[in-house]
Amino acid sequence: MGPYVGLAGITTGSALVVSSIAGAGPAAVVAGSVLLPTFALWGQVLLFGGPGVAKSLGGQPADAVLIRIVHDVARRAKMPPPAHVFVVPTDAPNAFAAGFSERDMTVRRHARVCARERHAV
Question: Fewer CB atoms near the end CB (10 Å): N or C, the chain?
Answer without folding.
Answer: N
